[in-house]
Amino acid sequence: MDIWELQRAVGKRLAELSGAEAGMVTSGAAGAIAAATAACIAGTDPAKVWQLPDTTGLKSEVVLTEGRSAFDSAIRLAGGKVVPVRTVEGLQSALNANTAMVYTMSKGDFLEKILAVTKKARVPLLVDWADGIPPMSRFSEPAKMGVELYTVSGGKGLCGPQCAGVLLGRKDLIEAALANCSPWEGAVCRPMKVGKEEIMGMLAALEAWSKMDTAVLNQEWNKYVKRIATMVESVRGVTTEITVPTEENSCPTLTVKWDRTINLTVEECVKQLRGGDPRIEVLSGNNPSLVPAVHEGAVGPEPEKRSAAPRRPGATEIRLLSMNLQPGEDMLIGRRLREILGAARKPA
User: What CATH code is assigned to 3-209?
Assistant: First the structure.
């Protein structure tokens, strides 16, 4: 099977599903960020493709609109020099003749303001919507806005291959991204290989989502978290809240908190859930995959002393995403969490 032909054939279908001019399957959203960076710096010129990550004589600055990110290493390894800002005014000041791309994780009004600036400056904008699905309607939103490049992860709510993602956008930039990726030997993103399994797996996942009724799914998912909430709230001192985030992971999400009458830290609760049989994983303020030195949102040469990113749970709560649950697992989680919290309750 010819991978070049497969990528282009699937890319054509991705374009139809998204409304973008073109698309490609990548090694996750982070792989898409690296490929997009290389595309905006080197284009399709073979000599420049081979030159990366050395950017001598090339535009190489990439402006980050929310400051530093745990994922900007994908930009740096392709040769991009990150320029973190935090405001629209900061973005306007940072753009210059050496700017190759602007990177953002924003949605809504702030994204529209960013796009207005980048369009005027004629600088490509890469929107990182790794956790944008569900809902599927978000898959086409950046294309409708006129965003030059955007990425969605395959391993989050999309439920596609964990090691894959998609990069969508302007046809010439997708062609440039393909020129800087595997299977081209000598390209900087050659190590970020995707095979026919990931390419077809991503297509299958997106085709499936295009036929799903998100409202029906949300009803079912809401039942799961409601059952868990009812069970754990039977322990005095425990409170719960069910929300549907609008920015990312847009599914019914259960937040569980408890007061001082329960002698248990979040870390201890997470450890007990993880140590049981079966093992239960929840979201907490402790992200074990984050490099300890990372300070997200930092601007300037010295990282700012910041707390965890806002999208992570607070230090005194745990969260459960309903879209990860299978039938029956809600009862299992509810019983186990009720048992742990109940056992830790202080005597009256």
Answer: 3.40.640.10
